[in-house]
Design a protein that fits this description.
The chain has one helix and three strands, in the order E-E-E-H. With 107 residues, it is α+β, with helices and mostly antiparallel strands. A hairpin with a 5-residue loop joins strand 1 (3-8) and strand 2. Strands 2-1-3 form a three-stranded antiparallel β-sheet, with no helix packed on it.
């Protein structure tokens, strides 16, 4: 259902109404109760999304984009550090296999 813009010629009150296409246009102003209400001509059949974002990545601010870029840069450098940590993590794995070998010797 489309959203229609209305304006009252008597008091100047403007509002939006969410109505079916098949409904007749309103003609009584809800503010002053005069029969001077008319539908404004809108931009056509454009879809308007009002409110906060619909998807997490839609319409991000520049500050968010800069922070995301900084995070991706820092995670790329930490990924390089993660590769250097892999060799240091392999000696505990070999010591755990030697522990399992000693445990199999006791059984």
């Amino acid at each position: 259902m489309p959203t229609y813009d209305y304006i009252c010629d008597a008091c100047g009150h403007e509002f939006e109404a969410f109505e079916p296409i098949t409904s007749t246009a309103q003609n009584v102003c809800p503010a002053c109760k005069e029969v001077k209400l008319r539908r404004k001509i809108g931009p056509g059949a454009a879809i308007l999304f009002k409110g906060s974002g619909f998807y997490q990545t839609d319409y991000r601010s520049d500050s968010y984009k800069k922070a995301a870029k900084a995070d991706s840069t820092s995670s790329a450098s930490s990924t390089g550090g993660g590769d250097s940590s892999k060799p240091s993590s392999s000696p505990p794995a070999s010591s755990s296999s030697s522990s399992s070998g000693s445990s199999s010797g006791t059984s």
